[in-house]
């Protein structure tokens, strides 16, 4: 069978290398005429911020809709008024849009379907498939049994249809207190699948809802609401994570018994986990609440907001999600792979400038005092299209403190007394010595330059082994740079014995005396650059001020990660 025949509107550039298992299921459904279109959705609960795992789900669902010429819906699964907040609705929408998953005008709220869900429940009662139960939550749990013990039927299971209709109506009208009565599906207390043992589908909760206010005091349970939401929106493939696999028979039961035509089907895939980072909403929340990180968008978090603030691009996250692929078994992906993706994305796109993070003064004693000159330096040697810029050179420069050593070890090719190096884009300089303070700290490094060796002059007289970067002391802008390490260290164990996170005390280093090329003073929030030899940096969106940007290191340049 020709696998791709049912594919409509497949973008030309998308190479079909191998189909993942979800695509194969969809191909089959289209070929067999189960569906004649593809419609997917992303259904977050507005109870927190999104993280990299959600990005995977968003891009998977959106990508499938794109691939099959179908539609992608954004739907807030806001059926639980206890934990949900409007603030999360706005941040989630912004994150999804930033990732480039375009839901056009299809923004939905599950709470808009409460009326239809109520009708579905009434239909089930009329069919003898649902009943009002007076057991307490503890009793329901006890009656449910477990993997080895079958469940016990509720004494209220055989109420008449009329009585059930009346009681359910009274639940809706607010006659009962929270927990006093619930509506349960009447399925099978002996089912080996515990989810099928007369699950609760409606509960009483006298609570205001962010969207429907006080209109309702009964709320549908997730397992009942979710399939109905999908069916109402004509979703074809309801893609969710593995923990819902055992709920699939109930999903199918709900759409069948509620008599939806052409009902959706659920397909499960494995959650994305990353090493050395904190992904669970619960843990992230704790870090924020304990003040260990600077809010949900702290650059050390893999929340979408944190990744954006750190300087990750939507392209790099899309690339990452593509590389990870879709699996049916849980596994952890190396964080280094995410870093690889941002490096690859920025490599040719961003200018490469000079920034000295940990400065020491370099004085070129034979360069005329008061003189400066302008050098033309290419912005990115691997991408000519980025052009070049003019950089001022003078007698006093800043170089990295660790680019000078008074007594170097073997194979140290940078500055030490008697050694010559190239100053990037400028001249050869030969170290003549240094000055130190009373504590023995180097305060100034001295050197002489050779005017014959100017970059681009074609000088071939001799070679040097080291090239170091620099900025001109009178010209450079002083800025703050922040360097990050992973917030937890997997090798030392992610959790302590008491279940708390084993935090890396060095996850943030603030450097307040960095010097950068003067044009960087004008950089705007989210602008990113390569700082030569030091990594990729992005202007912090929260703490930067006009003319005084703060730079977050996105990622260093080196990696042991190989694809
Ligand atoms: P968390 O477990 O972090 O609290 P959640 O599953 O409670 O997340 P929801 O808002 O319910 O968050 O999830 C929205 C969608 O995102 C669901 O379809 C869910 O399966 C998916 N999702 C959540 N976490 C991951 C993950 N780590 N990898 C892939 N998909 C995920
Ligand atoms: Mg959830």
What does this protein structure show overall?
This protein has helices at residues 21-31, 52-67, 86-98, 114-126, 137-144, 161-173, 222-232, 248-257, 281-289, 304-310, 314-324, 335-347, and strands at 39-42, 71-76, 107-109, 130-133, 182-185, 200-204, 218-220, 237-241, 265-269, 272-274, 331-333, 352-353, 355-356, 359-364, 372-378, 388-394, 396-400, 420-423, 428-436, 442-450, 467-468, 471-472, 477-484, 508-516, 528-531, 535-539, 550-555. The strands form seven sheets. It has a seven-stranded mixed sheet with strand order 12-25-26-27-23-24-13, with helices on one face. It has a seven-stranded mixed sheet with strand order 21-18-19-20-14-17-22, with no helix packed on it. The protein has a four-stranded antiparallel sheet with strand order 4-5-6-7. It is α/β, with parallel strands linked by helices and 563 residues long. It is elongated. Helix 7 (222-232) crosses helix 8 (248-257) and helix 11 crosses helix 12 (335-347). It contains twelve helices and 27 strands. Mean pLDDT is 93; it is low at 1-14. Adenosine-5'-triphosphate (ATP) binds at residues 43-45, 53-54, 56-57, 240-241, 271-272, 279-281. The site of adenosine-5'-triphosphate (ATP) has 14 residues, from helix 2 and strand 8.
